[in-house]
Specification:
The chain is α/β, with parallel strands linked by helices and 286 residues long. It has nine helices and seven strands; from the N terminus they run ααβαβαββαβααααββ. The longest helix has 28 residues.
Length: 286
């Protein structure tokens, strides 16, 4: 069900269901801020012009836009799911400089070379052609514009046993993600309860005992609420199309899209990377 618009309708439908169930309104400002900083810690806010115009490519519930919008002049939020866009519209209704559109990454209603910045977090690994998706985003940037992306990592900074453990979960994801929405939701919540929560809280306990836990599975969630675990379990096991990339592959895709000065975050979540569209040349490839 792929199309020339670089979209998968089943994936779009799944995310519409996810954000309708988990609209993120119960998240505390403190937790949202901590998660926001984990993604945006490498973002060069100081390089943006006053009243910068930017875009959120795949805005979902609008949770990141809520914190970006007060820092900029205009924020254009785009999501391929009508249901997700409706949730974002409600969540961002108090921010007059935000606008929400329903469109795919390749058909964003943004003029080429018009944005000072853009970001796409946890989206482009769920579309048929990730490299083309990055190019679509970079085309919207002005010369000198910056782009932040988060793509699922291929565990390239983890030991073999970690990758083997992840591989064992793939058949489960393949089956769950093809189930009807109510069933995939139910199974994901069981996984959140009996896998995510115990492993995350064990990691928190071990950390309090003075041990290093960064390399343990699901340790990223050790200080997250159960709501976040439930959301991400549905995201992880309920999505039919999922790709993973190592650091070198992401750097290559960003470079081929016309970005330079690519930098990666050295802390979870992996991989977050930011690049800049050159001021003099480097128009993204078609």
């Amino acid at each position: 069900m792929h199309s020339k618009e670089n979209r998968d309708e089943r994936v779009i439908d799944g995310f519409g269901d996810e954000w309708s169930r988990f609209d993120q309104r119960v998240l505390s400002e403190a937790e949202l801020q901590v998660m926001f900083e984990s993604y945006f810690q490498i973002f060069p806010w100081s390089e943006l012009p006053p009243d910068a115009t930017g875009f959120d490519a795949g805005c979902g519930s609008g949770r990141w836009a809520r914190l970006v919008a007060p820092r900029v002049g205009r924020l254009i939020c785009v999501d391929a799911s009508e249901a997700a866009a409706a949730v974002a519209q409600e969540n961002l209704s108090a921010l007059p400089n935000c606008e929400v559109h329903t469109a795919s990454i390749s058909a964003m209603p943004i003029p080429d070379e018009s944005a000072d910045f853009g970001y796409s977090l946890g989206v482009l690994h769920h579309i048929p052609d990730t490299a083309a998706g990055i190019k679509s985003c970079v085309r919207k940037l002005k010369a000198g514009g910056v782009f932040l992306v988060y793509l699922y990592y291929a565990f390239d900074n983890r030991p073999p046993w970690f990758r083997l453990l992840w591989s064992a979960t793939e058949p489960v994801r393949a089956m769950v993600s093809r189930a009807p929405h109510p069933l995939r939701f139910a199974v994901s919540q069981v996984i959140a309860t009996f896998v995510y929560w115990p492993l995350a809280r064990t990691a928190r306990l071990l950390e309090r005992l003075g041990l290093s836990v960064d390399g343990l599975p699901l340790s990223y969630y050790r200080n997250r609420t159960f709501y976040v675990m439930r959301t991400d379990a549905l995201d992880r096991f309920g999505t039919r199309l999922e790709k993973r990339f190592n650091r070198a592959e992401i750097a290559t895709m960003m470079g081929e899209a016309g970005l330079t000065d690519v930098r990666f975050s050295e802390s979870a979540p992996f991989w977050c990377a930011v690049g800049k569209k050159p001021s003099t040349s480097g128009t993204p490839a078609a």
